[in-house]
Fold:
Amino acid sequence: MLKRNLPPVHPGEILREDYINEHNLTITEVAEGLGIARANLSAIVNGRAGISPEMAVKLAEAFGNTPQFWGNLQKNYELWHAERTVNRSKIRHFWEEWKGLQPT
Amino acid sequence: MLKRNLPPVHPGEILREDYINEHNLTITEVAEGLGIARANLSAIVNGRAGISPEMAVKLAEAFGNTPQFWGNLQKNYELWHAERTVNRSKIRHFWEEWKGLQPT
DNA sequence: GTATCACGTAACATTACGCATTACAAGATA
DNA sequence: TATCTTGTAATGCGTAATGTTACGTGATAC
Structure:
């Protein structure tokens, strides 16, 4: 298992570079194709909004991949930031009290 | 790849059954161990709240598994509901216009 | 050269949700 | 009976996603 030290790119950046720019699409064009507002898509690709579960489904439908793909990008992004935000120091380690029952 | 037809259990249910009940813990006890309010944990295990990224980190720290574990449970739960909520009928299939460039 | 249009982004309002605080009901215990 | 513990609901706050509206910029039409 490999620990990442570098912050994962915002899913919106991948959306912009690998799907919009790569295929010479515009934000307006894609927003219309997804049935959402331009402002909404603009916020996503600029990192000012995340990819909601509903948006993940729409993106998958439009770009021929899975909602899991977009959901994973978003989840990894959020978890990476949460891991360095949350103060773990005062959390009780229940699993150490179980001696031999720890899941992976 | 296997398509699930049955709704995934709410992550809070797994938390309650496999971690709290299984080890004879109480909501009060676990909430204190996590450093959160009882009401907060109660809402989660009763399906009235989801597991946030921050909560996933805390649960992993307390129970000896990974934030990814809890994050995946939550993501799968949300995506399953989003898939049957979102109206895909009017979404443009950009990938069909790319002919041979579809990602998996 | 000015007017119009398309495009991208910001501002605002609405809605939903995670979380803390508070209040309440039920059961156990002194 | 009174007090304490436990679980849950109600309330308020902050944050975030979304749609609508507005604004600035560049291209195109006249």
